UniProtKB/TrEMBL annotation:
It comes from the Bacteria. This is Secreted amidohydrolase. One of its GO terms (molecular function) is hydrolase activity, acting on carbon-nitrogen (but not peptide) bonds. PANTHER family: IMIDAZOLONEPROPIONASE (PTHR22642), PROTEIN LONG AFTER FAR-RED 3 (PTHR22642:SF2). Residues 69-541 form the Amidohydrolase domain. Pfam families: Amidohydro_3. Transmembrane segments: none annotated. It comes from Zunongwangia profunda (strain DSM 18752 / CCTCC AB 206139 / SM-A87).
């Protein structure tokens, strides 16, 4: 009898082993934040053909599935791959080929970096970016005199950190044909005492850009691969590239199909007549790695360069209101054109005046179209009366580190009352809309997803300033922040059915962190590290 039972037991075990389902990867012994509808936790999951096959306890997954590869997470926290809802991916890569002025503490340091860069690279046209006069002792815009003296024959063009102001020398002005008589709309070509200072703000900057040498296809490809490496290190598996042209989009598509460019990109088409004419009459273009279904429109400039369009004058510049970058009628015409297509409209709006124009235009066009998910990019300064327009169909897309970068001088620009009523109001936006899509706006800010998370929940800089947090009532919880960097960002891209959470049938994009971002002391968040990044079940970092 004993032998019969032994035979039966062995037979059951053998049958059980034979009946296990084959998958490509099993992750077990993990603390998994699924970010599903219930924000449920799990211990293990199985991956097959690049997608999550099943999620559950370790015993459930290992009793049903067997895999070619199994990862023991040793209790580490696992999350859906982070999604950056607003960044400049291609520009980030290009910037690594230019002079880096991020973090400079004076104009003298800017000049020193340019000299050092040129000695090593000997460029015929020097480009770079990242300077911010608000970080200098002298907070006025710099002038071109020193650059003219050191580089009389080599054009130089240096973007401010926000990308909305440009410092150039006389050689660059000459090459672009810019004089004191040059006409423009939307922005500024700064003059003092009838002379050009070398500062251009917003629209006139294009005159300089048009005069710059265009990157070769090899340089463009290198930029994309460089940006991908930087992003994978921070757990990003999808990036929204907020404003790129057809040539870049088509190169991305080609590299994704034929080379090792794997990053998932949600591409916002730059608002040019050429781009609109090419794309809007076509169906949106979608692959597993590229989604082309939105248009990026610039409503106004940036607060730091006083280009944001305000309803009332700047507190630190009498009679100055900033400016819209296009006439209101032009914006409304483009919005109406996009509304007739299958594309989403995503508009840069920082000042309360720009936000009012964008929100009321969206509202009028979308009243009978409830699932267009048009986005307001930045939504930085909102009049108290205008919060009512936000919803799951008019989505706030915000970048938390803007609050902690601007907090030192934002009150100077806006005054205390305007700042407190509706600036950097992420919690108020969430309460009104039901979601917020979170991004970095890199390379305006750093690529770090952990700085994004920290700024959202702590509202401080990395020196613990201010001690109680900047307008702390507008902080998000950790759960809200994680959703904003995953499932809500996916929703804002019309991609919530395929990514943004660890659920059966979705892309197996996930990350392991060295420590649990949901539980570590708040002060540790900025310095967290990604242990591994997986895209479609493949380890990419």
């Amino acid at each position: 009898m004993r032998n019969i039972f032994t035979i039966l037991f062995v037979s059951v075990i053998l049958c059980s082993c034979d009946s296990k389902q084959k998958v490509d990867l099993i992750v077990t012994n993990a603390k998994i934040y699924t970010v599903d509808e219930d924000f449920s936790m799990a211990e293990a999951f199985a991956v097959k053909d690049g997608k999550f096959e099943a999620i559950g306890t370790a015993s459930e997954i290992t009793s049903i599935y067997e895999a070619n590869k199994t990862i023991d997470a040793h209790g580490k926290a696992v999350y859906p791959g982070f999604i950056d809802a607003h960044a400049h991916f291609y520009r980030l890569g290009l910037q690594q080929q230019m002079v880096n002025l991020v973090g400079t503490k004076s104009y003298e340091e800017v000049v020193a970096r340019i000299v050092e860069f040129q000695q090593k690279n000997n460029k015929s046209f020097i480009t770079g970016g990242g300077w911010d006069q608000n970080d200098w002792e002298n907070k006025e815009f710099p002038a071109k005199d020193t650059l003219d003296r050191l580089f009389p024959d080599t054009p130089i063009a240096l973007s401010r950190i926000d990308g909305h102001a440009l410092l150039v020398n006389q050689a660059a002005l000459d090459k672009a044909g810019v004089t004191t008589e040059t006409t423009f709309e939307g922005g500024d070509i700064e003059q003092k005492n009838g002379e050009l200072t070398g500062i251009l703000v917003d629209n006139p900057m294009q005159l300089i850009f048009d005069a710059q040498p265009k990157p070769t296809e090899d340089e463009m490809a290198e930029a994309l691969m460089t940006a991908q490496k930087m992003c994978f290190e921070y757990g990003l598996t999808t990036v929204v590239d907020a404003g790129i042209d057809r040539k870049v989009i088509e190169l991305m598509d080609s590299l994704q199909q034929h080379r090792d460019f794997k990053m998932r990109i949600y591409a916002m088409i730059s608002n040019t007549e050429e781009n609109l004419n090419y794309y809007l009459d076509k169906e949106p273009y979608k692959t597993e790695h590229l989604n082309v279904r939105s248009v990026k429109f610039y409503g106004d400039g940036a607060l730091g360069s006083r280009g944001a369009a305000l309803k009332e004058e700047y507190s630190d510049r009498h009679g100055h209101f900033g400016a819209l970058l296009s006439p209101i009628e032009t914006f409304k015409e483009v919005a109406a054109r996009v509304a007739k297509s299958k594309y989403q409209l995503n508009t840069h709006a920082i000042g309360d005046s720009a936000n009012y124009v964008v929100l009321t235009t969206y509202d009028s066009l979308l009243k009978n179209d409830p699932d267009r998910r048009w986005r307001v990019e930045h939504a930085q300064i909102i009049d108290e009366e205008d919060f009512k327009y936000f919803s799951k169909n008019i989505i706030p897309s915000v970048q938390p580190t803007h609050a902690t970068s601007d907090m030192y001088w934002a009150e100077d620009r806006l005054g205390e009352e305007r700042l407190q009523e509706g600036a950097y109001a992420y919690k108020k936006l969430l309460d009104q809309a039901g979601l917020v899509a979170l991004g970095t706006d890199f390379p305006v800010e750093q690529v770090s997803t952990f700085l994004t998370f920290y700024a959202a929940v702590a509202r401080k800089d990395t020196e613990n300033y201010p001690e109680g947090g900047f307008m702390k009532e507008e902080a998000l919880t950790r759960e809200e922040t994680l959703k904003g960097m995953t499932i809500w960002a996916a929703y804002a891209n019309f991609e919530e059915e395929e990514k943004g959470s660890i659920e059966k049938g979705k892309f197996a994009d996930f990350i392991l962190l060295e420590k649990d971002i949901m539980e570590v002391d708040e002060s540790e968040i900025p310095n967290l590290k990604v242990v591994e990044t997986y895209l479609g079940g493949e380890k990419v970092f």
